[in-house]
Protein backbone atom coordinates (compact mmCIF):
# COMPACT_ATOMS: atom_id res chain seq x y z
CA UNK A 1 0.00 0.00 0.00
CA UNK A 2 1.55 3.25 -1.08
CA UNK A 3 0.18 6.36 0.58
CA UNK A 4 -0.43 9.64 -1.15
CA UNK A 5 -0.27 11.91 1.83
CA UNK A 6 1.30 15.01 0.40
CA UNK A 7 -2.13 16.55 -0.06
CA UNK A 8 -4.01 17.51 3.06
CA UNK A 9 -7.53 18.91 2.78
CA UNK A 10 -8.55 20.77 5.92
CA UNK A 11 -12.08 19.81 6.97
CA UNK A 12 -14.37 22.80 7.52
CA UNK A 13 -14.70 23.64 11.21
CA UNK A 14 -17.58 22.04 13.10
CA UNK A 15 -20.87 23.87 12.64
CA UNK A 16 -22.68 21.95 15.35
CA UNK A 17 -23.03 25.00 17.58
CA UNK A 18 -24.24 27.15 14.71
CA UNK A 19 -26.86 24.58 13.68
CA UNK A 20 -28.15 24.15 17.22
CA UNK A 21 -28.19 27.93 17.79
CA UNK A 22 -30.42 28.21 14.71
CA UNK A 23 -32.61 25.37 15.95
CA UNK A 24 -33.20 27.36 19.14
CA UNK A 25 -33.75 30.63 17.29
CA UNK A 26 -36.15 29.20 14.70
CA UNK A 27 -38.20 27.41 17.39
CA UNK A 28 -39.22 24.78 14.85
CA UNK A 29 -40.43 21.71 16.70
CA UNK A 30 -40.12 23.50 20.04
CA UNK A 31 -42.33 21.74 22.56
CA UNK A 32 -41.97 23.69 25.77
CA UNK A 33 -42.66 27.33 26.65
CA UNK A 34 -41.02 29.21 29.50
CA UNK A 35 -42.52 32.36 30.93
CA UNK A 36 -39.79 34.52 32.42
CA UNK A 37 -40.92 37.93 33.67
CA UNK A 38 -42.79 39.55 30.78
CA UNK A 39 -41.12 37.40 28.13
CA UNK A 40 -41.69 33.92 26.82
CA UNK A 41 -39.19 31.50 25.29
CA UNK A 42 -39.74 28.34 23.28
CA UNK A 43 -37.34 25.39 23.35
CA UNK A 44 -36.99 21.63 22.79
CA UNK A 45 -37.48 19.76 26.06
CA UNK A 46 -35.32 16.80 25.08
CA UNK A 47 -32.37 19.01 24.21
CA UNK A 48 -32.61 20.71 27.60
CA UNK A 49 -33.01 17.33 29.33
CA UNK A 50 -29.93 15.97 27.57
CA UNK A 51 -27.89 18.92 28.77
CA UNK A 52 -28.96 19.46 32.36
CA UNK A 53 -30.16 17.10 35.08
CA UNK A 54 -32.20 19.93 36.62
CA UNK A 55 -34.09 20.53 33.37
CA UNK A 56 -34.54 16.79 32.93
CA UNK A 57 -36.21 16.53 36.34
CA UNK A 58 -38.39 19.54 35.60
CA UNK A 59 -39.38 18.77 32.01
CA UNK A 60 -39.61 14.99 31.89
CA UNK A 61 -41.36 14.47 35.21
CA UNK A 62 -43.83 11.65 34.45
CA UNK A 63 -46.09 12.66 37.33
CA UNK A 64 -46.84 16.06 35.81
CA UNK A 65 -50.49 16.46 34.97
CA UNK A 66 -50.11 18.60 31.87
CA UNK A 67 -46.60 18.50 30.42
CA UNK A 68 -47.53 20.97 27.68
CA UNK A 69 -48.31 23.73 30.19
CA UNK A 70 -45.88 26.67 30.05
CA UNK A 71 -43.17 26.57 32.71
CA UNK A 72 -43.02 29.71 34.85
CA UNK A 73 -39.54 30.81 35.90
CA UNK A 74 -40.00 33.28 38.73
CA UNK A 75 -36.59 34.17 39.97
CA UNK A 76 -34.64 35.02 36.86
CA UNK A 77 -34.08 38.00 34.59
CA UNK A 78 -35.21 37.24 30.98
CA UNK A 79 -31.76 38.29 29.69
CA UNK A 80 -30.12 35.69 31.92
CA UNK A 81 -32.61 33.00 30.92
CA UNK A 82 -32.02 33.77 27.25
CA UNK A 83 -28.25 33.39 27.76
CA UNK A 84 -28.85 30.15 29.67
CA UNK A 85 -30.92 28.69 26.82
CA UNK A 86 -28.27 29.68 24.28
CA UNK A 87 -25.64 28.01 26.42
CA UNK A 88 -27.73 24.83 26.61
CA UNK A 89 -27.75 24.54 22.82
CA UNK A 90 -24.19 25.67 22.10
CA UNK A 91 -21.96 25.52 25.20
CA UNK A 92 -21.12 29.17 24.55
CA UNK A 93 -22.66 32.48 25.60
CA UNK A 94 -24.52 34.64 23.07
CA UNK A 95 -22.96 37.72 21.51
CA UNK A 96 -23.82 40.73 23.56
CA UNK A 97 -23.92 38.81 26.84
CA UNK A 98 -21.73 41.20 28.79
CA UNK A 99 -19.61 39.27 31.26
CA UNK A 100 -17.86 42.50 32.22
CA UNK A 101 -21.09 43.46 33.97
CA UNK A 102 -20.65 41.91 37.37
CA UNK A 103 -24.37 41.46 38.05
CA UNK A 104 -24.81 39.42 34.82
CA UNK A 105 -21.79 37.37 35.71
CA UNK A 106 -23.02 36.60 39.22
CA UNK A 107 -26.44 35.60 37.94
CA UNK A 108 -25.01 33.34 35.26
CA UNK A 109 -22.68 31.75 37.78
CA UNK A 110 -25.63 30.95 40.06
CA UNK A 111 -27.68 29.65 37.12
CA UNK A 112 -24.75 27.45 36.03
CA UNK A 113 -24.53 25.88 39.48
CA UNK A 114 -28.29 25.53 39.81
CA UNK A 115 -28.78 23.76 36.46
CA UNK A 116 -25.71 21.54 36.85
CA UNK A 117 -23.82 23.26 34.01
CA UNK A 118 -20.34 22.91 35.38
CA UNK A 119 -18.73 24.52 32.36
CA UNK A 120 -20.90 27.66 32.63
CA UNK A 121 -20.36 27.89 36.38
CA UNK A 122 -16.59 27.52 36.04
CA UNK A 123 -16.37 29.99 33.13
CA UNK A 124 -18.20 32.55 35.29
CA UNK A 125 -16.13 31.70 38.37
CA UNK A 126 -12.94 32.39 36.40
CA UNK A 127 -14.32 35.69 35.20
CA UNK A 128 -15.51 36.62 38.72
CA UNK A 129 -11.95 36.02 39.93
CA UNK A 130 -10.63 38.38 37.27
CA UNK A 131 -13.22 41.04 38.11
CA UNK A 132 -12.39 41.20 41.82
CA UNK A 133 -11.95 44.76 43.09
CA UNK A 134 -12.88 46.73 46.23
CA UNK A 135 -16.50 47.01 45.09
CA UNK A 136 -17.03 43.40 44.10
CA UNK A 137 -14.93 41.37 46.50
CA UNK A 138 -17.44 41.11 49.35
CA UNK A 139 -20.26 39.93 47.07
CA UNK A 140 -17.89 37.49 45.38
CA UNK A 141 -16.85 36.10 48.77
CA UNK A 142 -20.49 35.63 49.72
CA UNK A 143 -21.10 33.66 46.51
CA UNK A 144 -17.95 31.60 47.10
CA UNK A 145 -19.06 30.73 50.63
CA UNK A 146 -22.65 29.97 49.65
CA UNK A 147 -21.74 27.74 46.72
CA UNK A 148 -18.56 26.36 48.28
CA UNK A 149 -16.23 27.50 45.48
CA UNK A 150 -12.71 27.25 46.81
CA UNK A 151 -10.96 28.95 43.89
CA UNK A 152 -13.15 32.03 44.04
CA UNK A 153 -12.79 32.23 47.80
CA UNK A 154 -9.01 31.95 47.62
CA UNK A 155 -8.85 34.63 44.93
CA UNK A 156 -10.95 37.00 47.06
CA UNK A 157 -8.87 36.42 50.17
CA UNK A 158 -5.64 36.80 48.23
CA UNK A 159 -6.93 40.12 46.87
CA UNK A 160 -7.98 41.47 50.26
CA UNK A 161 -4.79 40.30 51.91
CA UNK A 162 -2.44 41.63 49.29
CA UNK A 163 -3.82 45.13 49.02
CA UNK A 164 -4.89 47.90 51.26
CA UNK A 165 -8.53 47.52 50.36
CA UNK A 166 -10.29 46.58 53.56
CA UNK A 167 -11.45 50.14 54.20
CA UNK A 168 -13.01 50.46 50.74
CA UNK A 169 -14.53 46.98 50.98
CA UNK A 170 -16.10 47.76 54.34
CA UNK A 171 -18.17 50.52 52.74
CA UNK A 172 -19.93 48.25 50.24
CA UNK A 173 -23.37 46.70 50.74
CA UNK A 174 -21.85 43.36 49.92
CA UNK A 175 -19.62 43.58 52.98
CA UNK A 176 -22.51 44.02 55.40
CA UNK A 177 -24.27 41.07 53.81
CA UNK A 178 -21.10 38.99 53.98
CA UNK A 179 -20.54 39.77 57.65
CA UNK A 180 -24.12 38.93 58.55
CA UNK A 181 -24.02 35.66 56.71
CA UNK A 182 -20.42 34.50 56.98
CA UNK A 183 -18.59 36.32 59.77
CA UNK A 184 -16.10 33.44 59.89
CA UNK A 185 -14.63 34.49 56.56
CA UNK A 186 -12.88 37.39 58.32
CA UNK A 187 -10.81 34.78 60.10
CA UNK A 188 -9.56 33.48 56.79
CA UNK A 189 -8.66 37.02 55.73
CA UNK A 190 -6.91 37.80 59.01
CA UNK A 191 -4.99 34.54 58.94
CA UNK A 192 -3.35 35.69 55.72
CA UNK A 193 -2.21 38.92 57.34
CA UNK A 194 -1.01 37.80 60.74
CA UNK A 195 2.28 36.16 61.62
CA UNK A 196 1.69 32.42 61.72
CA UNK A 197 2.47 32.31 65.45
CA UNK A 198 -0.76 34.16 66.24
CA UNK A 199 -3.85 31.95 66.15
CA UNK A 200 -7.26 33.38 65.32
CA UNK A 201 -10.77 31.94 65.43
CA UNK A 202 -14.41 32.96 65.83
CA UNK A 203 -16.16 32.25 69.15
CA UNK A 204 -19.84 33.17 69.40
CA UNK A 205 -19.54 35.46 66.39
CA UNK A 206 -16.50 37.36 67.74
CA UNK A 207 -12.96 37.13 66.45
CA UNK A 208 -10.55 35.93 69.10
CA UNK A 209 -6.73 35.94 68.87
CA UNK A 210 -4.70 33.53 70.92
CA UNK B 1 -11.14 49.27 38.65
CA UNK B 2 -8.23 47.10 39.68
CA UNK B 3 -8.12 43.69 38.08
CA UNK B 4 -7.10 40.52 39.81
CA UNK B 5 -6.02 38.53 36.83
CA UNK B 6 -3.18 36.48 38.20
CA UNK B 7 -5.53 33.56 38.78
CA UNK B 8 -6.89 31.85 35.71
CA UNK B 9 -9.40 29.03 36.09
CA UNK B 10 -9.58 26.90 32.97
CA UNK B 11 -13.20 26.16 32.05
CA UNK B 12 -13.92 22.46 31.54
CA UNK B 13 -13.94 21.53 27.85
CA UNK B 14 -17.29 21.65 26.06
CA UNK B 15 -19.39 18.54 26.61
CA UNK B 16 -21.94 19.43 23.97
CA UNK B 17 -20.95 16.52 21.73
CA UNK B 18 -20.99 14.07 24.62
CA UNK B 19 -24.46 15.20 25.74
CA UNK B 20 -25.90 15.00 22.23
CA UNK B 21 -24.27 11.59 21.64
CA UNK B 22 -26.04 10.36 24.79
CA UNK B 23 -29.30 11.92 23.61
CA UNK B 24 -29.04 9.83 20.43
CA UNK B 25 -28.02 6.67 22.29
CA UNK B 26 -30.74 6.91 24.94
CA UNK B 27 -33.44 7.58 22.32
CA UNK B 28 -35.46 9.50 24.91
CA UNK B 29 -37.97 11.68 23.10
CA UNK B 30 -36.97 10.18 19.75
CA UNK B 31 -39.82 10.75 17.30
CA UNK B 32 -38.70 9.15 14.07
CA UNK B 33 -37.71 5.58 13.18
CA UNK B 34 -35.49 4.61 10.28
CA UNK B 35 -35.46 1.11 8.86
CA UNK B 36 -32.09 0.39 7.28
CA UNK B 37 -31.62 -3.17 6.05
CA UNK B 38 -32.50 -5.43 8.97
CA UNK B 39 -31.88 -2.75 11.60
CA UNK B 40 -33.92 0.12 12.95
CA UNK B 41 -32.71 3.41 14.42
CA UNK B 42 -34.58 6.01 16.48
CA UNK B 43 -33.73 9.72 16.35
CA UNK B 44 -35.09 13.23 16.92
CA UNK B 45 -36.47 14.65 13.70
CA UNK B 46 -35.84 18.29 14.62
CA UNK B 47 -32.19 17.63 15.40
CA UNK B 48 -31.74 15.99 12.00
CA UNK B 49 -33.66 18.81 10.31
CA UNK B 50 -31.47 21.43 11.99
CA UNK B 51 -28.35 19.70 10.73
CA UNK B 52 -29.18 18.71 7.16
CA UNK B 53 -31.38 20.26 4.49
CA UNK B 54 -31.97 16.81 2.99
CA UNK B 55 -33.30 15.43 6.28
CA UNK B 56 -35.38 18.60 6.75
CA UNK B 57 -37.06 18.05 3.39
CA UNK B 58 -37.66 14.38 4.16
CA UNK B 59 -38.80 14.65 7.78
CA UNK B 60 -40.68 17.94 7.94
CA UNK B 61 -42.56 17.60 4.68
CA UNK B 62 -46.02 19.03 5.49
CA UNK B 63 -47.67 17.08 2.67
CA UNK B 64 -46.77 13.71 4.19
CA UNK B 65 -49.83 11.72 5.14
CA UNK B 66 -48.44 9.98 8.22
CA UNK B 67 -45.31 11.67 9.55
CA UNK B 68 -44.95 9.05 12.32
CA UNK B 69 -44.49 6.23 9.82
CA UNK B 70 -40.98 4.68 9.87
CA UNK B 71 -38.69 5.96 7.14
CA UNK B 72 -37.20 3.23 5.00
CA UNK B 73 -33.62 3.80 3.82
CA UNK B 74 -33.03 1.37 1.00
CA UNK B 75 -29.61 2.07 -0.34
CA UNK B 76 -27.40 2.22 2.70
CA UNK B 77 -25.50 -0.17 4.94
CA UNK B 78 -26.74 0.02 8.59
CA UNK B 79 -23.17 0.64 9.78
CA UNK B 80 -22.92 3.67 7.52
CA UNK B 81 -26.33 4.99 8.60
CA UNK B 82 -25.34 4.59 12.26
CA UNK B 83 -22.16 6.60 11.65
CA UNK B 84 -24.19 9.22 9.78
CA UNK B 85 -26.64 9.61 12.69
CA UNK B 86 -23.75 9.93 15.15
CA UNK B 87 -22.21 12.59 12.95
CA UNK B 88 -25.51 14.50 12.84
CA UNK B 89 -25.54 14.79 16.62
CA UNK B 90 -21.83 15.37 17.23
CA UNK B 91 -19.99 16.47 14.07
CA UNK B 92 -17.59 13.59 14.67
CA UNK B 93 -17.51 9.95 13.66
CA UNK B 94 -18.14 7.19 16.21
CA UNK B 95 -15.32 5.14 17.71
CA UNK B 96 -14.80 2.05 15.65
CA UNK B 97 -15.81 3.71 12.40
CA UNK B 98 -12.85 2.55 10.38
CA UNK B 99 -11.89 5.20 7.85
CA UNK B 100 -8.92 3.09 6.83
CA UNK B 101 -11.43 0.76 5.17
CA UNK B 102 -11.83 2.31 1.78
CA UNK B 103 -15.37 1.07 1.19
CA UNK B 104 -16.59 2.71 4.44
CA UNK B 105 -14.83 5.89 3.49
CA UNK B 106 -16.37 6.01 0.02
CA UNK B 107 -19.85 5.38 1.41
CA UNK B 108 -19.50 8.06 4.07
CA UNK B 109 -18.21 10.50 1.48
CA UNK B 110 -21.26 9.87 -0.70
CA UNK B 111 -23.59 10.15 2.30
CA UNK B 112 -21.94 13.43 3.33
CA UNK B 113 -22.55 14.90 -0.12
CA UNK B 114 -26.08 13.52 -0.34
CA UNK B 115 -27.19 14.91 3.03
CA UNK B 116 -25.47 18.28 2.57
CA UNK B 117 -22.93 17.60 5.34
CA UNK B 118 -20.00 19.47 3.87
CA UNK B 119 -17.76 18.79 6.84
CA UNK B 120 -18.29 15.01 6.62
CA UNK B 121 -17.82 15.00 2.84
CA UNK B 122 -14.61 17.03 3.07
CA UNK B 123 -13.22 14.95 5.95
CA UNK B 124 -13.77 11.83 3.83
CA UNK B 125 -12.40 13.48 0.70
CA UNK B 126 -9.18 14.32 2.57
CA UNK B 127 -8.89 10.75 3.79
CA UNK B 128 -9.66 9.37 0.30
CA UNK B 129 -6.79 11.48 -1.02
CA UNK B 130 -4.45 9.99 1.58
CA UNK B 131 -5.60 6.45 0.81
CA UNK B 132 -4.90 6.64 -2.91
CA UNK B 133 -2.96 3.65 -4.24
CA UNK B 134 -3.01 1.45 -7.36
CA UNK B 135 -6.08 -0.42 -6.11
CA UNK B 136 -8.15 2.59 -5.08
CA UNK B 137 -7.25 5.31 -7.54
CA UNK B 138 -9.71 4.39 -10.30
CA UNK B 139 -12.68 4.21 -7.92
CA UNK B 140 -11.59 7.46 -6.28
CA UNK B 141 -11.40 9.14 -9.70
CA UNK B 142 -14.89 7.92 -10.54
CA UNK B 143 -16.21 9.43 -7.30
CA UNK B 144 -14.34 12.68 -7.98
CA UNK B 145 -15.84 12.93 -11.46
CA UNK B 146 -19.36 12.01 -10.37
CA UNK B 147 -19.45 14.44 -7.46
CA UNK B 148 -17.28 17.07 -9.09
CA UNK B 149 -14.61 17.13 -6.38
CA UNK B 150 -11.61 18.92 -7.83
CA UNK B 151 -9.19 18.24 -4.96
CA UNK B 152 -9.77 14.48 -5.07
CA UNK B 153 -9.49 14.44 -8.85
CA UNK B 154 -6.23 16.38 -8.77
CA UNK B 155 -4.79 14.08 -6.11
CA UNK B 156 -5.67 11.02 -8.20
CA UNK B 157 -4.18 12.44 -11.37
CA UNK B 158 -1.06 13.55 -9.54
CA UNK B 159 -0.67 10.01 -8.18
CA UNK B 160 -1.13 8.32 -11.53
CA UNK B 161 1.13 10.80 -13.27
CA UNK B 162 3.91 10.67 -10.76
CA UNK B 163 4.25 6.90 -10.45
CA UNK B 164 4.49 3.90 -12.66
CA UNK B 165 1.08 2.64 -11.65
CA UNK B 166 -1.01 2.66 -14.80
CA UNK B 167 -0.50 -1.06 -15.42
CA UNK B 168 -1.63 -2.02 -11.92
CA UNK B 169 -4.52 0.44 -12.07
CA UNK B 170 -5.69 -1.02 -15.39
CA UNK B 171 -6.26 -4.40 -13.74
CA UNK B 172 -8.76 -3.11 -11.17
CA UNK B 173 -12.55 -3.29 -11.54
CA UNK B 174 -12.66 0.38 -10.74
CA UNK B 175 -10.67 1.17 -13.87
CA UNK B 176 -13.14 -0.54 -16.20
CA UNK B 177 -15.98 1.31 -14.54
CA UNK B 178 -14.09 4.60 -14.78
CA UNK B 179 -13.37 4.11 -18.48
CA UNK B 180 -16.98 3.26 -19.26
CA UNK B 181 -18.29 6.24 -17.40
CA UNK B 182 -15.61 8.89 -17.76
CA UNK B 183 -13.25 8.05 -20.64
CA UNK B 184 -12.32 11.74 -20.83
CA UNK B 185 -10.43 11.51 -17.57
CA UNK B 186 -7.64 9.68 -19.42
CA UNK B 187 -7.02 12.92 -21.27
CA UNK B 188 -6.36 14.68 -17.99
CA UNK B 189 -3.94 11.94 -16.97
CA UNK B 190 -2.14 11.97 -20.31
CA UNK B 191 -1.87 15.75 -20.32
CA UNK B 192 0.21 15.48 -17.17
CA UNK B 193 2.61 13.09 -18.85
CA UNK B 194 3.06 14.58 -22.29
CA UNK B 195 5.22 17.52 -23.30
CA UNK B 196 2.97 20.60 -23.39
CA UNK B 197 3.49 20.95 -27.15
CA UNK B 198 1.42 17.84 -27.83
CA UNK B 199 -2.29 18.42 -27.60
CA UNK B 200 -4.67 15.63 -26.65
CA UNK B 201 -8.46 15.29 -26.61
CA UNK B 202 -11.27 12.75 -26.86
CA UNK B 203 -13.27 12.52 -30.08
CA UNK B 204 -16.15 10.02 -30.17
CA UNK B 205 -14.74 8.16 -27.17
CA UNK B 206 -11.22 7.85 -28.66
CA UNK B 207 -8.13 9.68 -27.51
CA UNK B 208 -6.61 11.80 -30.26
CA UNK B 209 -3.20 13.51 -30.18
CA UNK B 210 -2.54 16.56 -32.30
Automatic annotation (TrEMBL), chains A, B:
It comes from the Eukaryota. GO terms for biological process: protein ubiquitination. This is BTB domain-containing protein. Residues 30-93 form the BTB domain. Belongs to the Tdpoz family. Pathway: Protein modification; protein ubiquitination. SMART domains: BTB.
